[in-house]
Amino acid sequence: ATASLEWLPVQDPSVIAYFVHYGRQSPGQPGSCSYESSMYVASPEATVGGLDPDTRYYFTVSAYNGRESACASEVSAVTPPPSV
Q1: In terms of pTM, does the model score above 0.90?
Q2: 3-57: pLDDT as tens digits
């Protein structure tokens, strides 16, 4: 399964990329980036692949300008069930 994410870009010219953090469990702490996986993206959108079907995933994003920011508010979604 895949999940497509899009967010408002950070209005800071020093930001060169973002990290999308995701996993099946939430760290439960606002601003935390402690998730199972992460991916580096150059624009304020991403498609995360290789997700298990019919599973809740938690997502967040951090900005990167040579140093990583705190993570944004978390969102979650359930991936669709497997197709027959």
Answers
A1: yes
A2: 999 999 999 999 999 999 999 999 999 999 999 999 999 999 999 999 999 999 9
3-state secondary structure the chain: CCEEEECCCCCCCCCCEEEEEEECCCCCCCCCCCCCEEEEECCCEEEECCCCCCCEEEEEEEEECCCECCCCCCEEEECCCCCC
Other beta carbons less than 10 A from residue 57's beta carbon: 22
Residues 6+ apart with CB under 8 A from 83: none
Q: Which amino acid is at 41?
A: V
- Tokens linked to 78: 């359930």
